[in-house]
Structures are given as C-alpha cells and as structure tokens.
Amino acid sequence: MKKISILKPVLVSNQERARANRKFFDRGGSLVINIIASPGAGKTSVIESLIRRLKSDYKILVIEGDIRGSSDSARIKKLRVDAIQINTVTACHLDAFMIARVLPRVKRKYDLILVENVGNLVCPAEFEIGEDFKLAVLSTPEGGDKPAKYPLLFHLARVVVINKCDLLPHVDFNLTRAKKEIRKRNSRALIFEVSAKTGAGFGPFVKFIKLELSKKR
Amino acid sequence: MKKISILKPVLVSNQERARANRKFFDRGGSLVINIIASPGAGKTSVIESLIRRLKSDYKILVIEGDIRGSSDSARIKKLRVDAIQINTVTACHLDAFMIARVLPRVKRKYDLILVENVGNLVCPAEFEIGEDFKLAVLSTPEGGDKPAKYPLLFHLARVVVINKCDLLPHVDFNLTRAKKEIRKRNSRALIFEVSAKTGAGFGPFVKFIKLELSKKR
C-alpha cells in the first residue's frame, strides 16, 4: 500500500504550497472557489451560469482542471472570460503545485477565480489549492446517497449546489433526504437547489457569491 | 510531484499481484468483470439487473469497493447473492492488493464475479485487479463528452454499458456522437444501451455475458 504510506507527507507539503498560493490570491483580492463534483454533474454549466450573471460587474478567471483536452476552457472563452487550462495527465485531482505552476500566467487582478477540479468525488477533496472554500456540485441523477458514500467532500464543502433539479420528476432523488445526508456531514453547509439548464434557483446562489465578493473589497 | 514519480513502480507491482489474482480466479473457473463508472452512473443498479437475470443459472459473487460504508453490498445481499465489501478509506480505486486480501474469504467456486470499483473514471482504469475485462458504465445525464475527457477507461474497456437511456428525452445526450467518441478510443468496444430502471436493453447484454460464461465451462 505504497500510496497510502506516502499520503500524509504529500498532503503536508501540498498544504504549505496551498498557503503560498493563498497569499498570492490575497494580494490580488480574489475570491477563489474550488469546485468539485462527479464527472458530468454539471460543473462547467454551473460556472457558465455564474459567469453570465456576474461578468458585467466583476473580473473573472476560470482555471480548468482536466486529465486531457481543453473543451471546458474553450466553452469558458466563448463567454469572453479568461481561462487557463491545466491537464493533469494521470492525476485524478488538482493539487497546490499544479495551481502554483500557472500563477505566473495570472497577470491581472481578478475579483473571482473559479477553479474547476477534475471530475472526481474522492481525491480533489484531499488536496487544498489555496481556495477560500470548496463548493460541491451534486446532480440529481447521481442519487442522494453520495454524501454518505463520499463523506470527506461533503464534510469540507462550505457550499453544496444541487444541480439538474429540472430532472427531479424523472429520477429517484429525495431532496429532503439528500439535504439531511449533507447536513449530517456538515451542519453549516449552505445548500442551493438549481438547474443550470433552465436557470432556476440561481437567484439566492448568485446573491451569496456577491456577498462573499463584497467581503474582499 | 511525488505521486507521479512513484506511479510506475506501483503499477508494476500491482500488475504482478493482479496476475496472481488471475490464477486464483482461473482455478475457480470464474468470469471476473471489473465494473468502472462515475459516482451515480448506476453500477449497482446494473449489477442488480444482471443478478436478477442470471442467478437461477449461475453462482455469482459481488465484490463491492467503496471509500466507506456497506450500503451497496447490503443491496446485493437482499437478492440472496454473496457479497464482500472492501472499504478503501482514502484510496479512490481498488487495486490488486485489496482484492488479494479478500480472496481467502472466497470459499466456493463462482461462475461470475462482479467487482464494483469505487465511483471514479480516472484511477480505477489504471489498476488491474486480475479481471477478465473492464466494463465501463456511462449514464446519459453525464453527457457524451466523457470518453474524450477520460480516455484511458474507454480505451481499455471491452464493454461500455450506456445506462439511464430512459432519461434520453430529458437530457442533452447525443447517442450517435457518444458511440462515435467511444469507438474513437476503442474500435472494438461492445456497446449496450440499457436502462436499469425500466429493464430496457438488457436482452443483448445478458446474452453477451452468458456467451462469456459459456467459454469458462
């Protein structure tokens, strides 16, 4: 079990690097959100929806983490927002060192930096990158048992966005039970119910993000 | 990047252990399928559907891989089929050593051993466990871009089961394009379109599994 025996020192050195990233982001006055979800939960669609509602008032950067390819950063650039693509190649998560390597490309001050992690509910939760907070996206077709099966992410996430609520009539997802499962891991989690497809539910979510942005000014 | 520098030797030692597991399974004449998918793609539901259609004719064992908990193996046991739960704690995938540790609990001969890996499209594809083949489950709400974003799994999977086809009218999933994306990584992949919820599409899939089982006799 080689991987497990080295995990602790790797995480400690990662945490030091995350603190240095944090200082960089603080100097720019940026709010940094680490967005974590399963593949296909709708991370990029949620980011696009936020951008459309915020880009006229705030400078936004998106950092995209993917094993390969740049299809997500291409989607972001179509909205005329800056995007940096990181390809992790074999790694199933972003870590603080990968973020540090792209910081020299962050040339201007951004109000909001949205980091889209690799689609995975496990390791991305373990590696801090210098974020203000973690935001988990849980989509209704995945089922409400995910907070119990992947407890660390839901324990750590300050915000949980339940996405694809437009599919609720067609899937077996008990919203009340899912929220209870989330609160069991994290009694203070803020939960927003949205549909990136229809736009429903983004009002309170955007209001919260604006409140967080105002604290940085 | 400590993790990457040790990845190769870890994989080599894993492969040796996988070969030893393979010999164990061969002695029992078992067909072993390593089932890999995102969280919530419906791996357990697909396994339940297979069990219902096969358990009267074949001896089946399910090995469940989860970070924590035993909710999936509890579901399997309800169908009166043997199940062994592995909790990976921090690891985002099963490896050959975790499988080797539970082999002493495999006391009888099974025709079919279904291994449900941890919900993750990245690392489970990298670690052989001694399987006959990998089976990927891709659910329609995840979107058809997943084969391009997680190419290794779709390159290696002999079988791809497209699940939740009952949701096709409600989600943006182009079946033709998705199959093209799969075939681009793996021209010989067998693709089955199913709905574990309605039972649609299981005929050809079960026929294929029975054919593979007949080769072991």
Offer a quick outline of the entry.
Two copies of one chain form a homodimer. With 217 residues, chain A is α/β, with parallel strands linked by helices.
Radius of gyration of chain A: 17 Å
How would you write the strand order of the largest sheet of chain A?
3-2-4-1-5-6-7
Largest interface: A-B, 47 and 47 residues
Under CATH at level 1, the class of chain A stands as Alpha Beta
CATH fold type of chain A: Rossmann fold
Helix-strand blueprint:
Two copies of one chain form a homodimer.
Chain A: H1 2-27, E1 31-37, H2 43-54, E2 60-66, H3 71-77, E3 82-87, H4 96-102, E4 112-116, E5 133-139, H5 146-149, H6 151-156, E6 159-163, H7 175-185, E7 190-193, H8 202-215
Parallel strand pairs in A: 1-4, 1-5, 2-3, 2-4, 5-6, 6-7
Helix pairs in contact in A: 1-4
Structural features, described:
2 copies of one chain form a homodimer. In chain A, 40% of the residues lie in helices and 19% in strands. With 217 residues, chain A is α/β, with parallel strands linked by helices. The first copy, chain A, has a single domain (7-216), classed as 3-Layer(aba) Sandwich (Rossmann fold), CATH 3.40.50.300. A 7-stranded parallel sheet of chain A has the order 3-2-4-1-5-6-7, with helices on both faces.
Label this structure with key terms:
homodimer, 217 residues, alpha/beta, Rossmann fold, 7-stranded parallel sheet, 8 helices, 40% helix, globular
